[in-house]
Write a structure and sequence with these properties.
Length: 187
């Protein structure tokens, strides 16, 4: 049985439905309410899971600087980045919002190159360029007939989606600083 492939497919389906449900919920009760509620539920489930698996609510033996970087990571990604993403869901819908989130690997590659000195092969750079062209193509199609107000709202939604992606990248980069010296990710 191809468990890895099934898990990947299941994850993609869950991500799709999550984006749709968050979009609908954000339109009904507001994206801020949806984001805060999601964070509270996730924090509660995380505490319960950690207690169940490890016998304590919080990981022990973690240095304060790691907690600091993880806190910054959470604020940048889960609070600010997702606030922008959830507002993008309301403005431009889940399809374009998730398209903007597909830029996370592209932006992460650039940050890895600039901040961590990671090497990027020419084939990988061609992939980045192809992805950028694809995203640009989708977001610019059909815009010639839109009114100025519609175009302004559309651009605002795309900007919020891109800021959501930047928040996700900031989350990844700052979490990396917390996990230096082969520190295992908290379980």
């Amino acid at each position: 049985m191809p468990w890895g492939e099934l898990a990947a497919l299941g994850t993609a389906v869950c991500w799709s439905f999550t984006a749709i449900f968050f979009s609908i919920s954000g339109r009904r009760i507001g994206s801020d309410v949806v984001n805060r509620s999601r964070l509270l539920f996730a924090f509660g489930f995380l505490l319960i899971t950690h207690w169940f698996l490890e016998g304590v609510l919080f990981p022990s033996g973690v240095e304060p600087f790691r907690w600091g970087w993880l806190a910054i990571s959470s604020i940048l990604g889960l609070v600010l980045g997702d606030a922008f993403l959830f507002q993008a869901y309301v403005i431009v819908g889940p399809r374009l919002s998730m398209l903007m989130m597909s830029t996370v690997p592209i932006i992460s590659t650039l940050f890895g190159l600039l901040l961590f000195g990671e090497t990027v092969t020419s084939l990988e750079m061609m992939g980045v360029a192809l992805a950028v062209v694809g995203v640009a193509w989708v977001v610019t199609e059909g815009q010639s007939s839109a009114s100025t107000m519609d175009r302004r709202t559309y651009n605002k939604g795309l900007l919020f989606g891109l800021l959501g992606a930047l928040g996700q990248v900031a989350n990844l980069v700052t979490a990396r600083y917390a996990l230096v010296d082969d520190f295992p990710p908290p379980r």
